[in-house]
Amino acid sequence: MAKTKQSEREKKLKSAMEILRSLGFAPKQSNEVAGYTLLACLDLKPGQSWSEAAAPLRGITPVIDFVATAYGLRYAPNTRETIRDEAVKYFVEAGLLLRNPDDPERPTNSGKTVYQVEAHALELIRTFDTLEWSGKLKVYLASRDRIRKGLERDRKLARIPVKLPSGKTVTISPGGQNPLIRTVIEEFCPRFVAGGTVIYIGDAEDKFLHLDAEYLQRLGVAIPAPAKMPDVVVHDTHRNWLLLIEAVTSAGPVDRKRRRELKDLFAGCKAGLVFVTAFANREAMRSFLTQLSWETEVWIADDPDHLIHFNGERFLGPYPDVLPQN
Question: In sequence order, what are the residues at sequence separation of 6 or more whose Cβ sits closer than 8 angstroms to the Cβ of residue 166?
C-alpha cells in the first residue's frame, strides 16, 4: 500500500513537471519545487484525476502545508523565498497564476497575498492525460499572449495615476500605502513644498518605480537600498530642504530609530533634511502617537492645510544636526 501511494505521488509530480515544460517554462521553473507548487495551487492530491483540479486562493505558506499533507514532503520555512522567486513569480508573469484576485489592492508584500490558477489555464490542465490535451494545448499556447495582455491591461487599469508637481503623471499600484502616497504628492507638496521636485516614490510593488538617481547624486546622496528608502523624497529647491516622507497606514512612522536611520542614510546630503510622517486621518495617527520622534513633522490628509510639529525651535525645517556641512 505504501509503495502504491509513493508511486501515485511520483507520477503526479512528474506529470505536473511535464505540464510546466509543455507550457514553456525553463528547467528551474519546471523542477520538483515548481511541480509541487503547481499541484498545491490546483489542490490536487496524488489519487485524484486531473479533471478534478481546482483553483483555490492559496498563499505560499498554505502551499508548503498542502505539499506536506498531501505528498509527505515538508519544506523548511526558508523555502518560502525559493517558491516565490523561482516558481510563483514566473507563473504570475506567464499568466498561469493570478496574484490577489480577491483583492487587487492588497500589496504584493502583504503576508495575506494569495495566488489562484487562471481560468483558461485551469481549463487546459483539466484535460491533461486525455485525448483532448494536445489540441487544447495548441489553442492555449496560441492564445496565451492575448490572455496575458488582457491580464496586464487589467492590472494597468487598476493602477493609481499620480500627478507630480512638474505636471508629469506616473502610476502606482493600488495597494498598501500607495493611495496615501498619491495624496501626499498631490495635496501636501503644493501646500508645503510649492515648486518642489519629487525625486523618489516608493511603490508597494516596485520600490524604485520613480527615482531620479542623478538628482540625488547631485545632492551628495548615494543611492540607498530600496528597503531603506522613505516612501517619498521631495527637494524644496527654494529653501534647499530635502523632505523625507513616510506614508503610514499600518506601520513605519518616523520614530526615533527611523529618524536616526534616515539621518545616516542621507548623511552628506547638500540639503537640510526634514522628516515627515503622513497619515490619512487622526484615527490612523492615534495608535502611533507615542512612537513619533521629536523634531519631526506630521501631516494628516483629512486636514491638509495643517502640520503638527513635534517640538524644537522651528515649525518646519531642518535642525542643526541635519543641516549640510559647509
Answer: 197, 198
Whole-number pLDDT of residue 161: 64
Query: What whole-number distance in Å separates Cα of residue 105 and Cα of residue 76?
Result: 30
CA distance 62 to 114: 9
Residues 97/41, Cβ–Cβ less than 8 Å: yes
Question: What torsion, rounded to 10 degrees, do the Cα atoms 232, 237, 239, 240 define?
Answer: 70
User: Quick one: 160-322 is in which CATH superfamily?
Assistant: BsuBI/PstI restriction endonuclease, C-terminal domain (3.40.1350.80)
Q: Which residues of 312-326 are buried (b: 16+ CB within 10 A; e: fewer)?
A: eeeeebbbeebeeee
Superfamily of domain 2-158: BsuBI/PstI restriction endonuclease, N-terminal domain (1.10.10.1820)
pLDDT score, position 313: 58
What residue type is 17 in one-letter code?
M
Q: E-strand spans in the chain? A: 97-99, 115-117, 160-163, 169-172, 197-201, 210-211, 232-236, 241-247, 272-279, 297-300, 307-309
> Are 281 and 301 contacting, i.e. CB atoms less than 8 angstroms apart?
yes
pLDDT mean by block of 10 residues, the chain; 326 residues: 71 94 90 95 94 94 94 86 88 88 74 90 94 92 74 60 70 73 89 90 68 88 75 93 90 91 91 94 91 93 91 68 75
Q: What are phi and psi of 75, to 5 degrees?
A: -80, 145
Give CA angle at 42 (39, 43), nearest 5°: 85
